[in-house]
TrEMBL record:
EC numbers on record: 7.1.1.-
Reported function: NDH shuttles electrons from NAD(P)H:plastoquinone, via FMN and iron-sulfur (Fe-S) centers, to quinones in the photosynthetic chain and possibly in a chloroplast respiratory chain. The immediate electron acceptor for the enzyme in this species is believed to be plastoquinone. Couples the redox reaction to proton translocation, and thus conserves the redox energy in a proton gradient.
Protein name: NAD(P)H-quinone oxidoreductase subunit 5, chloroplastic
Organism taxonomic ancestry: Eukaryota, Viridiplantae, Streptophyta, Embryophyta, Anthocerotophyta
Catalytic reaction(s) noted: a plastoquinone + NADH + (n+1) H(+)(in) = a plastoquinol + NAD(+) + n H(+)(out); a plastoquinone + NADPH + (n+1) H(+)(in) = a plastoquinol + NADP(+) + n H(+)(out)
Location in or out of the cell: Plastid, Chloroplast thylakoid membrane
Gene Ontology cellular-component terms listed: chloroplast thylakoid membrane
NADH:quinone oxidoreductase/Mrp antiporter transmembrane domain boundaries: 141-442
Quaternary structure and partners: NDH is composed of at least 16 different subunits, 5 of which are encoded in the nucleus.
Keyword set includes Translocase: yes
Amino acid sequence: MQLIYQCAWIVPLCPLISSILIGLGLPFFEKSTKSIRRICAISCISSLSVATVICYNLSYEQIIDNSIYQYSWSRISNGDIVSEFGYLIDLLTCIMLVLVTSVAIIVMIYSDGYMSHDEGYVRFLVYPSLFTASMLGLVLSPNLIQIYIFWELVGMCSYLLIGFWFTRPSAANACQKAFITNCIGDFGLLLGISGFYWITGSFEFENLSKGFKDLLVNNEVSLFFAILCASFLFLGLVAKSAQFPLHVWLPDAMEGFTSISALIHAATMVAAGIYLVARMFPLFETLLFVTSVISWTGAVTALLGATLAFSQKDLKRGLAYLTMSQLGYMMLALGIGFYRAGLSHFITHAYSKASLFFGSGSVIHPMEPIVGYCLDESQNMIFMGGLRKHMLITGTTFPLGTPSLCGIPLFACFWFKDEIIADSWLHSLFIGWIALLTAGLTSFHMFRIYFLTFEGEFRANSSKENTPVSSVSLWGEFRFEEFGEKKADSVLEIVEKSSPKEFFRFVQSNRESSETEIGNYLSAYPLKEPIHFLYPKESDYTMLIPSLISSIPTLLIGFIGAPLPNGQLGSDLLSHWLNPFGNLSPERFSENWLEFIEDAITSISIASFGIWSAFILYGPASLFPRDLEKKIELELKGFWGFFINYMYNWSEYRGYIDEYYNKIFVKGTRILAYASSFFDRWIIDGIVNGTGISSFSGGEGMRYGEGGRVSSYLFGLVFGMTILLSVILVII
């Protein structure tokens, strides 16, 4: 066996060592550690670079010989329970290793520029390194016990990163929400692992799948119990990959800084669930009910994420809902049995979403000095617009990730998204319609984000003194009021007050340049001092270079899934790499180039319709016909007006799911806790305390009654006899 396989244990160890060294130095040598912050950053990046080199070498060796290598160096034995610890290397492992390390090292370089001003910069360096080490350990795990250990570490690191700015209440609440939601799934995962060990007597992936199949064929296991265990196992994956109904933590996780949002959405937190479904795919495939649950969960999640993004004003939160939708796509593909398409879309989506989050961070970072450091302002697309003119590089990299996520031809996600849609039609007509509709909504929302952010005119101009308030409603028109003469509502208040009926007039109201309108305003109300408007500038090179690097895979990575010249869809590279069974089912990849193009036409058409809709509603003002506004106003009456209002409210209140959870679980838990407290305080403690008080009172009474005076005793005797005789006479 080659030396490179024996060195695989170094991969998670490299980021772990850098995390431990910096973490130990921070509390004990705080001043010294902070003084060498740049050295700490270089050490983290260097350790990840070593891990990345090893991963690429492992992948190269796997591509050549396509062998499976498993090594175990320790064993924990407790009676009948035996668990080995080690690592498993196959093509799936290597692909995940390359994905995690490549994204992680770009995130670390990007974060050096994004977080350089933060006081907790050194503390920040500890968390992503530990996060990456945990994910690498999870990917290399050969059994479910080891998976569960690293699974919990990944959840802990996400809690620390989401709540990095823990002094902000919203961040503290968001990290707690993510932690509690994932704990629900983790409990289900633990039950599923325990159940399958009880069935098969093994935690190892290979023994687990083969043993379970043999028991199922010989009818030696209860089918109901097996489905129950698989459902519990899948519950853990639902929470980690933000699938319905445990998706509620993902949008709030945007409270963390943007570079870590890229790491969570592309290569670690949400990737863990998809990876484990792929790893357990041979087991899940034997239970048709479970695969049906997986596919329907993915379909509902995909559609739900796409609809909840309808009216999001927050740039990162809009991307988060689209991440949720694409994760549903992957889960849908795995559930209907198309392993290659689901996992391939996972790979291409990871690089595309990393590029988009890097672009959003490059936008948010220069917006903060202009509109303020509050997330409701710096991440609000209402304050943006026209940034392509002021940020040329970011305005180039972000649009590369946008068409990729939409499935535009020749971009990364194109080669697999249309395949998932076509496969969905073969599985179920209803699921096919959901997949097709979600594709159109994804294109609409992605170009909505692009047009609001990079096209039009900049909408957050400000100056140091006597600045007129330049505000724009999410749905309505510009308003200009002089700050010194009349106190205007804040922009956010104006946004909340506006009606959804004016939504489609948003771009129309922005036809004229904001400088021209402000010039007209100033001619009517001249100010004593000239106004100097601020515009966002391009980010530092430490942020731009990673953005450029991450945009390259959005163009090239998808070609590994393109059909080779012999014309067969199964002849692409990923068909040979992503194979859980050792050989591919030939009927699954029997299509030729003509059928491939026919399948692509449908997905391209619906994506083009979504892009056209976004262009009509949010596109550059100069390209709009003048009579379009009147036509849209007519369309908004009647059914369409009701539909738009409903969709706006649906998205604004997150599908009312959070409200239901708050009323049923949060308030229900509080009522139950109050009832338990009341029962414990007044019933349990009341009985004990009542007994004690009764004994104390009786003792005190007896003590005062035994004073030693004969007259008192005679009085008591006469009084008692009188009462007794009275009772007897009454009874007689």
